[in-house]
User: Fold this.
Amino acid sequence: MISVMIADDETLARVGLKTMIPWEKYGFNLVAEAENGKVAMELALQLKPDIIITDIKMPLINGVELISALREQLKDTKFIVLSSYGDFDYVKEAMLIGAEDYILKLEMEPEPFAELLNKVKGKIEAERSRHKEERADEWNKRRNLPALREKLFQNLLFSYYLNEDEVQVQFNYLDIKLHPENLVCLLVRVENRELYEKYGVDDRYVLTYGVTNMIEEVLQNYPPAYVTSTNSMEFAIIHSIKAGSESETKYAAEKLAVHVESALKTCFNFKCRIGISGSCSRLRKLKSAYRQASAALDQGFSELKRTIHHYQRQLDAGHTVSFEEEFKQIEKAFHVLDGEMLTEAFDQFVRKIDDSRFNKSEESLRGSCWTLTFMVTVWEKEFTGEDSDRTAPLASLEQFRTLDDYRNWILELKDKVISLLHHIDDGKNIVARAKKYMLKHYDQDISLKSVSQHHNISPNYLSSLFKRTTNENFIDFLIHVRIEQAQHLLKNSSSKIYEIGMKVGYPDAYYFSKIFKKVTGLTPQEYRNFQK
Assistant:
């Protein structure tokens, strides 16, 4: 029931209020009455009633002073003011500081009085229901927090695209404190797998959970940093490093890696190798950082005495095979649903496996196939709505021992992906064709209207499809394509800044520089200088 207290210095007024309506019938419980403001204050703090009906003028403490004093301490309590005709200035002040409503004593009748009480009661019950839902939501969030964070981080590391604003919303909801400055990925890979293989399936899950918890304890000394299990006995750490120069960032990342390596050895007798990516300043670049960390392990595979490896930008083609370009092609093909582009990228995978100029390791091939599996399953979920089992193909990878095993697996995966392309709905196919057109004609003066005309659909329909299927605006994607191409030209050509702007569809050099800085955080010249 809703608890009610009456505060009025007039005895007859209190008696009249108590007898005016059948309180219990309406769901109210009169818990106290007070003859002045001071007594009302003491009783209110003790009983914490849901509703206080208070006279505006009382000895010692008046109604306005009572409401003002209790407002902060009894945040959920509602106040109804009793007043006379000459009290309107007090009533106005009481309403300003939080009173729900007021009643004129001389005009008070049972029916309007009961109606007012029920209105306030409804507000109290609605607030209670909302608070209950919020507490339930918070409880469920806390109970599922590790799983929710793991899912989000795996999407960040393996998805071909995620909307940055939506990720930030999820970060806020899951209380993730990462900020997109000096983001670094560390990939921890346990080497002595024979210890892991001794465990059964259930025990392996417990072991993975234990290792994750141990790493989380280490990360408490390096905030903000988070860990997620990516594969069996492989763990990715995402860390925002507060450091200035590149050398300081490397030192801070290696310090964390040494701590994790030592803890794994002490707690589990695990030997591990850790790859460290370069730093990035965009959340959507985390998947590239993960690949860099994996490439760092590949690059350092032959360095038996070292266990911590930093990603090197200049790869030696004769050292260890890398599939970075193939990943990018597959990612682009997923964007535009291009079967020919996908086929060529998968075939290039196989050609590199067969190419004797590249040194291949079992770990690097398995790691690349793991990444490929996650990319495909995330894409499949996004574009077909089917949530396939990621563990099945991963389990088969554990059994591979020859290059033919890997090449045949990749060819089978290619056939599966090409088959899935035929089940994409028409809306997503239209958006894919529009993206393909934009990727080809980004250097021209294209717009939503021109692209929609090219595909014989209305601009509004294309805009709606774009937002619904990608959670991204048409113009945002066009800017992303142009700036990405501008970055490539700034790194790999000697063209002048204004020339590059024209090549990517921005004939106005000032506007090009403005858009480039908004997206990357650097001017074109600063970006070019940073790449040297």
